[in-house]
Amino acid sequence: MTANIIDGKQLSSKVKEQVKLAVSQLIKKQIYPGLATIIVGDDAASSIYVKNKGKSAKEVGIKSFQHTLPEYIEEKNLLKLINELNLNDSVDGILVQLPLPRHINSDLVLDSIDPSKDVDGFNLLNAGKIYLSREGVIPCTPLGCLIMLRSIKTELRGKNAVIIGRSNIVGKPMAQLLLNEDCTITIVHSKTNNISEIVKEADIIIAAVGIANFVKAEWVKKGAIVIDVGINRIILDGKNKLVGDVNFNEVKEIASYLSPVPGGVGPMTISCLLMNTVFQCARRNNIDLPNNLTDLF
Ligand code: NAD
């Protein structure tokens, strides 16, 4: 058996088309969604992510405001900028690219974003809503994974889902989302004993570890659905290569569905950011969320 590949690039294009349609509906009502992105320092990978996010926003008709701040900016000046963006009516979404330099308190920064303009779902209030199963903003990467799972039209209820990694931005919200879908969830992490035995029980595996080729074929139950969140840069045969947390070539012979890296969760994350921006814009203007977007859930 060879796994069906969950094509994140293709699926994310479909999401973007729906976002574009929703934006055009808002523009007809003289409402122009805007996304502000903030990057502190000049980390090459982060700069590329932020640039791509701004480019994608423009592609779907969302106005993009990019703020690049120096590495040594004082925390109070970053908070001042966020406050200005909170008060700026042209801005519907504020994204602060993580990680921030060590001298800045990330929690304080994320909590200073107006919850109605939080598009990452990392703000205290929005993070809490997921755990209470209330409508709010779902972090982009777990949301992208959920849409990928929905796209294969499989019944999630009752499935045994194992999430590898317990970060605030991927593992924890992902587990909660799948719990909200009536999955039975297990989170494994760096201090878990017998990871392979636990993963072997999974109908759904979400790998968000940050270690290249971490999940091996012998860990995977035949027919399991595997979503690979990892982005790891390795050197193979003298060339730079991007690989996930799952040993793709091995696992594709065992899994029923598998998402690739690149071309899997990465593009979905960006599309979900655009979707969250439109959601926030619609909510802030008391407009019902466009059906074409809510249908994706
Ligand atoms: P993180 O470093 O914050 O968390 C990694 C998690 O893996 C931790 O909870 C840790 O307990 C666990 N872990 C580490 N070593 C382990 C081990 N040996 N065994 C079991 N668990 C172990 O990372 P993150 O921000 O959650 O990101 C995880 C990966 O996903 C990274 O490769 C990151 O680049 C990628 N990522 C991709 C996207 C995307 O859009 N595709 C978005 C976010 C993160």
Strands, helices and their partners?
Elements: E1 4-5, H1 8-28, E2 34-40, H2 44-59, E3 63-69, H3 75-87, E4 93-96, H4 106-112, H5 124-131, H6 140-151, E5 160-164, H7 171-180, E6 184-188, H8 195-199, E7 204-207, E8 225-228, E9 232-236, E10 239-243, H9 248-251, E11 257-258, H10 265-284, H11 291-294
Parallel strand pairs: 1-11, 2-3, 2-4, 5-6, 5-7, 7-8, 8-11
Antiparallel strand pairs: 9-10
Bound molecules: nicotinamide-adenine-dinucleotide.
Nicotinamide-adenine-dinucleotide is lined by residues 141, 164-167, 169-171, 188-190, 195, 208-211, 229-232, 265-266, 269.
Provide keyphrases for this structure.
three-stranded parallel beta sheet, 2 domains, six-stranded parallel beta sheet, Rossmann fold, single chain, alpha/beta, binds nicotinamide-adenine-dinucleotide, 297 residues
Give a verbal description of the structure.
It is a single chain. The protein contains eleven helices and eleven strands. The strands form three sheets. The protein has a six-stranded parallel beta sheet. Strands 3-2-4 form a three-stranded parallel beta sheet, sandwiched between helices. It has helices at residues 8-28, 44-59, 75-87, 106-112, 124-131, 140-151, 171-180, 195-199, 248-251, 265-284, 291-294, and strands at 4-5, 34-40, 63-69, 93-96, 160-164, 184-188, 204-207, 225-228, 232-236, 239-243, 257-258. Strand 2, helix 2 (44-59) and strand 3 (63-69) form a beta-alpha-beta unit. With 297 residues, it is α/β, with parallel strands linked by helices. It starts with a strand and ends with a helix. The protein has two domains: 30-114, Rossmann fold, CATH 3.40.50.10860; 140-265, NAD(P)-binding Rossmann-like Domain (Rossmann fold, 3-Layer(aba) Sandwich), CATH 3.40.50.720. The structure holds nicotinamide-adenine-dinucleotide.
